Every structure is written in structure tokens, then in C-alpha cells.
Amino acid sequence: MKRALLIIILLLLLLIPLITFLINSKPLHIYAQPQVLLDVRIENVEIPSGSLVVPHLYTWLFTGKEEQHIRVHWTKSYNTTAYAIALRSPWASYPYFMVFRRIGPYGVSQCDFYYGSRPAGVMLVVRVANKPAPGPADAYYLDPGYPPPKDTWIHAYVDYNATYHANLYLYEYKTLNSTSGGTPLIPASDPLYLGARGDQPTLEDVRNVYDGYMRWFILWDNTKKSTSEMIEVFRSLVEGKTVDMGNVEVFVDPTFFNSTHYLDLSKNRSPVYHNPDVKRELDAHRWLWLLKGLYTDTKLYFRFLNQIREVSGGKYIRIVITSAGTSKEYWVDTGDEFSIDLVKEFGSSKLSSASITIEAWSDKPGAGIMTVTRTVTETVTHVSLTSVIQYEFMYITDTKTVRTTVTRNITQVVVSVQYLPATTITEQRTLYSTQTVKETLVSTITQTSTSEATKTVTTTAYEVPGWTMPSIIVLILIVILLGALYMTRGKK
């Protein structure tokens, strides 16, 4: 009877390590090492103080929908003006559509840039026209002589200078077409229309809407530089992403957005409207703009940092500036804007052969590491969707517990990628670790979507608690006692 009671007590004691296992043991903690989620940069440029650095991340997508346009309320005369634009289109509209239009007080356009059928075939055409009251309109056309390639980025520069010569320069073909006019352009205070013909009586009658993508638009009011000089300014903009803002009257980019409307970054700060909504899509090619001459102090300014966070899903921004062998980094934890004093930081108000990189990080290295469980959601439209989701997991023992972990437990890591409403793909791994092990999960999903879809990436770690040393010691003692009882069975 006593032996049976002792065995029952020992068996009950077996619950002690089980309780310790379930309550007192520390599970394996899984962390993702901080990583760069996105970087944008500008390289080998001269950076004077008073400059502004901003990212280019998006393009506008015009769908040919009636009344769709971007309207800039620029109120100056159109005399001695140049402008440039970056666009890509299937060129499918007929008979023509406007890429850019500025109208005059007599209902005749002062300057059009459109895809049309005049004067020689279907191609990009620049039309400069005016109508001095009460006489007939003067109209002049610039035609490069060949149709633009479909779905290819085109960068075009146009001016109508003080000698009444109109010029069209296409960067991709290094071609310059010119024609002479007879009268100056008429001063006008009507808005600029991007992506539509806007000379109708009401906004509800905006017609000939552009069908395609637009990266940016810039307009100069320059009375000093010749066309050849301005073409070099234009080339510097396209190749080096630098803009001297001294003579810029309008500069818009779909990244310059404050959650309700787009922003003109020129000194004029002209109001910019989109009616109805013009969609933004992530651009495959991203960079940093350097806008010179916007401020008069010794600082270098940064804006639209939250746009980088939004695109990447990263929380922290790291800015790296390199010049003359000196490299400095700055972490921006919060906020949309940031600035440094170049004189204080680099000892000069101008940096030569400089480079700037802005990175979005998942977390700060060495400042606390991020748990791997997270959800990232982004919206994508009208594109073939190929996603490569890659996470690197670091398995780390819990150094805060006083107990010694002698074995690591099984851990499952599940990566689920879902395109609503069409596809869900889940990848699961079972992983073992004793101390520190790295493993990379790679999941590749390709799907074609003809309409808007939401992509959600969810990474979740599942853990099983581990045995602790006190639990194991108690278990061993109980087993020894049970063994001793077994060996002494039948003995008196």
C-alpha cells in the first residue's frame, strides 16, 4: 500500500516539469535583422546651400477619361517661355489628344503639345498660335517627322523665344525642329492644362484627354538664355536630375503630393488641381531631384520623406551625404522634412562631386531589432504583378532569462502573400536551432491583374516553448526514484 502510494506521489510529481515547461520556460524569440527596404539617390553633383532634395517615386496615369486633367493656375504671361515634359503612351487615341495646353484670352491656344494628325501624319506635334484682336489667328507647327515609339519614355523640350521662333527638341533622338512666327505670344492668365484640352467654357467640358503616363512637367520664363543654352539646361535635368530653380515658373511631379492635392515646387507655389482624380503609380525608375536656389540660407533641405516611408513600408530614414572623401549620415525617425547646415556639417556652403542617398530602413541597426511578425499592404493597378518576398530570420536565445536553455524548440515560419481577390500563396518552413541560425525564405508570385488589386504580405512566426534546466533536473530525479522503486520491488 505504501509502495503504491509512493508511486502515485512520484507520478504526480511528474507534473512539476510539465507545469514548468508550460509556464516558466521562455520561448525562442525570432527577429528580423534591420534591412534597407528602399534607396533613392543622386550622384556626382554640385550641391550649393539653399537647395532642396526631393524624391521621384511615382508617375501619373491618364486613362483618356473625359475631363481628366491636371490644372496649374499659373497667371504670368507666356512670353519667352520654355517647357519640358516626360511621357510614355501607347499613342492609341484618335484623332488627337492634348499632352499640354495653355490657352489665350481669345479662345485660341497659345501653345499645344499633342498627338495628332497635322500637318504630316500621326505624330507628336507642337502648335504655337495666337490671335491678336480682331485679326485672324497665327498658327505654327513643329513636327519631328516620325511617330514616337509606343510605350517608350519620351523627353521633350519646347520654347517660343523672343525672336518668335518656336523650337522642339527630343532628347532621345537629339533632334531639333524649328519654325519662325510673325507675332509675339499674347499675355494670358488662364490655367495650364496637363493631359487635356482646357479651352472649353466649363471644367465639365474638358476634352481630348491624354492616354498614358507622365513623370513630370517644368516650365521656364526665361528672357536671357538662348535655345541652345536652354537645351543644355534641359539635358542636365534629364541626365543629372538637377534643376536651377531661378527661372522656373512651374515644376510638378506626382511625388509632390500632400494627401489632398499636388504641389508646385517653384517659388511661385502655384495651386495645382486634378479633376477628376489622376491616378499615381509607382515608377520603375526612381531617383532624387536636386532643386537649386530655392532658399537663401546655408542649409540643405529635404522634403517628402513620408512618401519614401509609404512606398517602402520602412519606419526610419537614413540620409547619407558624401563629398570630397567625407561621408556623414543622418537618421530621421519621424517627420516629412529635414535639413542640415552645410557650413556647420561640412565646413563649406557648396559641396563638389557630391552624392546623396536616402534609404528607408525596417529599423535602426543596433537600436533594438524588429520582431518578424508584420503585415505590409500596397495597392497596384493595371500591371503584371511579380513579387519576390524575401525575409532573413535570426534565431537568438533569450538572454534576459536566468534559466539556461539546453535545447531549442521547433519553430514554424509562415509567409503568406495574397492578391485580392484572385490569389493566395502560403509558404511554410519548419526550422531547428540550437543557438543562432540564419535562414532565408524566398517566395515568388507572378500574377497578371487587369484591374486594381491589393497585395498583402503577412509574415508570422509560430513557436513552441522549450524545456528549462530546473524542469529537466526534476524530471531526472523522478525517473531515478521510479527506477529505484522498480529495482526494489518484491524485496522486504
Automatic annotation (TrEMBL):
The keyword Membrane applies. The chain crosses the membrane at residues 467-487. The keyword Transmembrane applies. It comes from Ignisphaera aggregans. This is Uncharacterized protein. Keywords: Membrane, Transmembrane, Transmembrane helix.
